[in-house]
Automatic annotation (TrEMBL):
Pfam families cross-referenced by the UniProt entry: Pkinase
Domain Protein kinase as annotated: residue spans: 47-422
One term of GO molecular function: protein serine/threonine kinase activity
Keywords annotated in UniProt: ATP-binding, Kinase, Nucleotide-binding, Serine/threonine-protein kinase, Transferase
Class of enzymatic activity (EC top level): transferase
Name this polypeptide is given: non-specific serine/threonine protein kinase
PANTHER family in UniProt: PROTEIN KINASE DOMAIN-CONTAINING PROTEIN-RELATED
Length: 425
């Protein structure tokens, strides 16, 4: 085993207690549910934490060194995704398994059944899982004088990746540019390959297709060495809560030298497809909720296509398809604004959706509030291709195949891969 790295003990900014940092920004954040990862900590007697890469609604993400790497050809860098407590789900019929664990089990089962040594294009467009394990600790959280409780957290070991597509988008925006059309198409093709693999091979729904869950393949793994060296020389800012908990501020890798194909990541919302089963409830980002979610009716893998369409518009046009008020997602004003914009974009909901027995609340809303909503269609809003009418028509047709009231009217991932707009160079 390699020698242990010793983290810097000075030279970093101390963040004040009043400022929320990273995972603390989550609406439902409760520190007692989040494992207090520390720089230098060794997990599973193998992975030493070196830097913080990011965070999400249910996990923190860290760069770690695999101490068991045996030679110089194995640089040992991995990504650890440490889930908050209480993320176990029994939707696969097995208690204690997170949705991400269940997803990668489905991938491995498919490979074993098909006797695959190398992945298909779709599988290769999905972030590679190198392992997983569970950690337990005595959580001291609770009322003063109470005994610590044993809490478990699931950890996924992943292949390190580069920038998110969201970061890439913002980097172009800072230069008052949009992502070039050819690169946008490459990103969308990779996403559709991953979704086609999920929908047809392992029968899974992603349920959170978003530019923050797509990450560029690293063009040079030496970028990870540079990132770790930068952490040593200029330690990241942090908020020291007490002797047991420090909240570190994540930092990003430097801009990649070239933009390689992205991989679809974060399967914490994923669920399975069954012939006699559809899903209900909310999933994914609020601005990308499908009509079925808005009407509180069951949804299928075509949710991914709706979310994909919302992302495609954002990346190509530079604006959200649905612009929601900056309020908590549970606020009634967010629902009202979203449904109004949906009707403005797509016209009246389908009779089938409006008269669904589970859509009573939405039906009442529609009857009371939908009058007088002015149409503002995709054709009204598209602005990037105004000088290229033929190309514009093909792009708008592509978008119409993604965002439809009825799920059966949305194209599949495989069909979209063959759409003329994506095939056009």
């Amino acid at each position: 085993m390699a020698d242990l790295w010793k983290p810097p003990t000075s030279g970093f900014e101390h963040i004040t207690s009043s400022r929320l940092v990273d995972e603390e920004l989550n609406e439902a954040y409760d520190a007692s549910n989040w494992y207090p990862v520390k720089f230098g900590e060794v997990f599973h007697e193998r992975y030493q934490v070196r830097a913080k890469l990011g965070w999400g609604g249910s996990s923190t993400v860290w760069l770690a060194k695999d101490l068991s790497a045996k030679d110089s050809k194995q640089d040992g860098w991995v990504t650890l995704k440490v889930y908050a407590g209480g993320m176990e789900a029994d939707e696969e019929g097995e208690m204690g398994k997170s949705r991400e664990f269940a997803f990668y089990d489905a991938v491995n089962e498919y490979k074993q059944q098909e006797h695959l040594d190398t992945g298909s294009d779709g599988e290769l467009s999905i972030c590679n899982c190198l392992g997983r394990f569970v950690i337990s600790w005595d959580n001291p959280g609770g009322p003063p004088g109470s005994k610590p409780t044993t809490q478990t957290h699931q950890v996924v070991v992943l292949e390190p990746l580069g920038w998110t597509i969201h970061t890439l988008f913002l980097s172009f925006l800072k230069k008052t540019e949009l992502i070039p059309e050819s690169l946008s198409k490459d990103i969308l093709r990779s996403t559709l390959l991953a979704l086609d693999f999920m929908h047809t091979k392992i029968k899974r729904i992603h349920a959170d297709v978003d530019e923050q869950n797509l990450m560029l393949t690293l063009s040079d793994r030496a970028d990870l060495d540079e990132f770790a060296e930068r952490e040593d020389a200029q330690p990241c800012a942090r908020k020291i809560i007490d002797s047991t908990r420090t909240v570190y501020e994540a930092r990003e890798l430097r801009e990649p030298k070239e933009y390689l194909a992205p991989m679809l990541c974060d399967f914490g919302h994923s669920t399975h497809i069954k012939e006699d089963h559809a899903c209900m409830g909310l999933a994914g980002k609020p601005h990308a909720r499908s009509p079925q979610m808005m009407f509180d009716v069951k949804w299928t893998e075509k949710l991914d296509i709706w979310q994909f369409g919302c992302m495609a518009w954002y990346l190509f046009e530079g604006e959200r398809l649905f612009k929601l008020p900056n309020h908590p997602s549970s606020d009634a004003s967010v629902y009202d604004a979203h449904l109004e914009q949906m009707i403005s974009l797509l016209g009246h909901p389908s009779v089938e959706l409006l008269h669904h027995p589970d859509a009573e609340d939405a039906k009442v809303w529609f009857e009371n509030f939908c009058q007088g909503i002015s149409p503002r269609t995709l054709e009204d809003r598209e602005g990037r291709l105004l000088s290229e009418p033929a190309k514009r028509e093909i792009f708008l047709d592509f978008m119409h195949k993604c965002v439809q009231w009825k799920e059966q009217d949305r194209w599949s991932a495989k069909q979209l891969l063959g759409h003329p707009w994506l095939l056009e160079k």
